[in-house]
Structure formats: C-alpha cells, structure tokens
Amino acid sequence: MSFDVGAVPFNPDGWGPPETPAGPLLVKQDGAAHPANIPFAPFSRSEKLGRVADWTRNPNFSANASRSAGGTRDAVFDFALDESSALSGAAADDSSFRLVDGKPPPRPKFGPRWRFQQRPQLPQRRDEEVEARKREAEKERARRDRLYNMNRRSYASGPFSAGFRRDTSNQKSSVDIQPEWTMLDQIPFSTFSKLSFAVPDPPEDLLICGALEVYDRNFDRVNPKNERRLERFKSRNFFKITTTDDPVIRRLAADDKATVFATDAILSALMCAPRSVSSWDIVIQRVGNKLFFDKRDGSQLDLLSVNETSQDPLPEAKEDINSAYSLAMEATYINQNFSQQVLVRDGFKVTFDEPNPFASEGEEVASVAYRYRRWKLDENTHLVARCEVHSVTEVKGQQTFMTLNALNEFDPKYSGVDWRQKLETQRGAVLATELKNNANKLAKWTAQALLAGADLMKLGYVSRVHTRDHFNHVILSVIGYKLKDFAAQINLNTSNMWGIVKSIVDLCMKLNEGKYVLVKDPVKPQVRVYEVPADAFENEYVEEPLPEEEQVQPPAEKDATANAMDAAAEAEANAAAGAAEGEKDADASEV
C-alpha cells in the first residue's frame, strides 16, 4: 500500500504553512486559518513537547470523542479531548476541575471523640493493626486448642466413660517386665471401642455354691443425720481365689464343660479396660485346647482403686494415708465390712447346691454365693466364669440376687463435694462426681453384677469419721439401683464388653501352648501381650499383707499386739469424739 501525502502548499515567504492558503487544505477555526485534517494546538517554549501521534489509543473512544466534538480529525493525532494531555483545551480543564475542601471536619459537641472521629490512617499504621489482630487471633486459637485438648483428656468418651487421664508418666507397671520376656502384640484401646459381639442370653448356670444372707432394709433409711458406724467383721473370711486354684473350675475343665475359664473380676477388668488408667495384668495359660485367665498373687485386681480417673493427683508417698496404695487398702477393707454389715444377722441363710468351695469345715465365711455360668462364644468355644453375688432380697414375692459395694470418701477437698452436706439435697451431683473420679471401678462393679445375673446393686456411701482418721468410718447412705438402668446411665455397652473379651480369646487361641501375660501400659492407653517362662510368677511375687489394723481374720490368728493396737485406735477415736462433743456443749452453753 502507498502512503498519499496529498497536496502540500508552498510558502515562498518562509517556513510553515502560508498565511493565505492556495487550496482547500486550510480551514478557518476560531478566527484563524489551520491546515485541514492536521490537529494543531498552541504551545509555549516553556512547555515540554508531548507525543506527536499515539498509535496505542483506543480508536473507538477517540472516534466517538471526535464525532461528539463535531470534528473529523484523525484519531491518532487528536489530543484536544485527552484529559491526560497538557495540550487540552479550556473546556477539558473545566470538566476535570474539582474543588478540594481542606477544612477539618467539625468537632462534635458531645460524646467521646473516638466514637465519632475516624481519622485517616497511614498505610503503615493500618498494616500494624492488621498484624496485631492476626496475633490476637492466633492466641485465641491456641487457647481454644489448649482447652479442647484438656477437655478431651478429661472425658475421653464422655463423663461416664474412661474419665480423665491424669499425668501417668511417673507411674510404674503392675508387673516388672523381664528382659527374657517376648512381646507378641500390643493393642491400643481405640480398637476396643469399635468391637461388638452379642452372646446368647441368658447364660447357663452350671453350679451355685455358698450361702447368702438377706439384705436388711433398715439401711435404706440411713442418711447423714442418722448415720451408722461401720463395724469390723474380723471373724469372717473373704476369699480371692484365682481361676486355676478353684477346685470347681478344675472339675469343670476335667469334664470338658468349656474351653475358656475365668472369674468375674478378671473378665470385668478386660471388659472395662478402655476406662482404666492404672496398670494391671492378667496371666493367660494355654493348656491343650483350653484357655485359663488367671491373676497373680498380690495382683492389683484384688484391690479397689480410689480416684483412678480423678483430675487431682494423689500423694505419691506410699506411707501417706491418702496415697493411691493406702486408699486402695482402705477401700477394700471398707467394701468387705460394708457388704456384711447391711445383712440381717439372725442365722438364716439361703443355701445352694454346694457349700463354699474354699472354706474349711467349721470356718466362718462371708455371705457370698458363687455362680458358675457358661456362655457360648462360637460353635467351638464356650466360656465358664465364676461370678459372685453378695445377698438376696424378696421383690414381688420372688428372691432376687443383689451385689453390695461401698464408695468411700476420704477428703472432700479432693472430690469437691462434701457428702454430709450434699447427699440428701444433691444426690445426683454426688453420684456424678463419683462417676467422674471412679469411672473404672463403678464400671467393673456393674460388669460383675451383670455377669452374675443380679437384678439390683446397692451402693453404700461411707466416709471417715475424721479426714485424718483412716481406721474409723460411718455409713452415710445406702442407695439401690436397677442394674440395667444403671448400666445405661454410665454408658456401659454389653455388646462392646463381650466384643473385647471375644477379641482377646480369639487372639490367645492362636498362640502356642504356654504362659502369657497381658499387661496394661502404665502410661499409654494400650495393652501388651508377653510370652513368659512357664515358672514365672510362682516364687517371685508374694502378696503384700494388709496392715495389722486392717486385717480381716479370725481372732485366734491375731496376736496380743494387734489387739492392743486396735484397742488404742478405738480409745483414741473415742477420745476425739468426746472432745468434739465437749466443744459442741461449750459452744451451746456460750450461745
């Protein structure tokens, strides 16, 4: 394409276009002659020269602007309507002119200044405030996470579940792990919560041994204002016999009545394992095609834990009366005596198929009946367990089995609830506190009662006479619960309980013949399975005896020193009670 310059007029008088154009190239605008089709604007020598032509401009916008201005000039040379150009006309200057008000805003006549004034902020100041808000948001998020983790530790599965898991880094294992032991498997508690298994109901009763006394209904009227002194039953014997030492279980195993044998205490420890915090262990023996679940002599399963799932840690010194070991001994002592005191002691007993299999002739034993019951786990596996019931009562003309257990209060500052003040008015709050502090113990009691086929469970609330006296106690109240309702209240799922037992049985059935031990880790929520030598736990572990003041045995087996200590303790308690009564009388006389 060729570029047509067009006709260029000649100026004989000098440079630039001639004053009087010879052709139609010149047009008159604003009283002056200008070249046609070429934009022209006056400028002074002090102004900077801009661009002559702008080929990057929007031609549509420029063409529209040119047409609206009434001209037909070329768009790339037209800067008359460009506001950014210094060569625009007076009309363009007027249209782009805006008055800026530099006066400060009027000050309000009332109210704080910060509420009405919003001064413009510098960009740096605004960035600093944004960063400060981000830091505050991070702090708030960290605080919420900390509270969430704390609550998660406090209630692993709700207040009626595993409860609070306090710092267990300083706790020891219930059994010393020997270097020659071989760890076969470790099972976290998180897998236990997903298990479920339904056993045929009801189980089969193979045999019932022992004798039961009737529950005394007068204890249902005991309250903090009408408390009862807890008695000591030193002449009655209590037995904690393991599975393989039970002559009845040996006889049933010889008759091939089942393939798995255990006791209610061992099964309840397995069923409620996810709620446990302290360490415990169970000895497992595989003999032929049979499986025996045992406990060691002096095992933790023989003692009742106190404040195991509590938020407040107990004193670590073993000799302290409020240490975990001392409280476990005290709770076991209270539970045994309470189960015998709330009975009608008139000589009448309900007898069963066989007498107590562990008592010798003429020996006085506690009121207890052993029910040997069988459950079907699968076509080839049956489980037989020895279950205990403590008393019998009559409900609607029928005899009903019941279990008797006692909760003990040692110091209200640990639980935060004073039983003497709250048991009558806020009984639910007291029970909720115990469910939080002793979730594992209450769950095991409920599981044992369900295994034994009891319909009722009586809970006694026993407190110390004085917070520093761990020898003398009083019964503040006795409350009965229907077993199925109470199990639902504490969120105890029977299908999950049997699912845990079934999984452990299936695991042990795959092992070779020998001896194994199942240990609950003292720190982590998990259990480990170790293979141990055949002679393990036979001579190394001896049961630690109860203190002289707390032993429950016939009087003939106690020496004069023990009797003297008992007499001194009773005299000291009576003196303290007399002093307290004297202070009350003095205060009354002053009033």
From TrEMBL:
Cite the InterPro entries for this sequence: eIF3d
User: Where are the annotated segments for RNA gate?
Assistant: 300-314
Q: Return one GO MF term.
A: mRNA cap binding
Q: Where in the cell is it found?
A: Cytoplasm
Sorted alphabetically, the keyword list is:
Cytoplasm, Initiation factor, Protein biosynthesis, RNA-binding
Q: What does this protein do?
A: mRNA cap-binding component of the eukaryotic translation initiation factor 3 (eIF-3) complex, which is involved in protein synthesis of a specialized repertoire of mRNAs and, together with other initiation factors, stimulates binding of mRNA and methionyl-tRNAi to the 40S ribosome. The eIF-3 complex specifically targets and initiates translation of a subset of mRNAs involved in cell proliferation. In the eIF-3 complex, eif3d specifically recognizes and binds the 7-methylguanosine cap of a subset of mRNAs.
Q: Could you identify this protein by its name?
A: Eukaryotic translation initiation factor 3 subunit D
Organism this protein belongs to: Ensete ventricosum
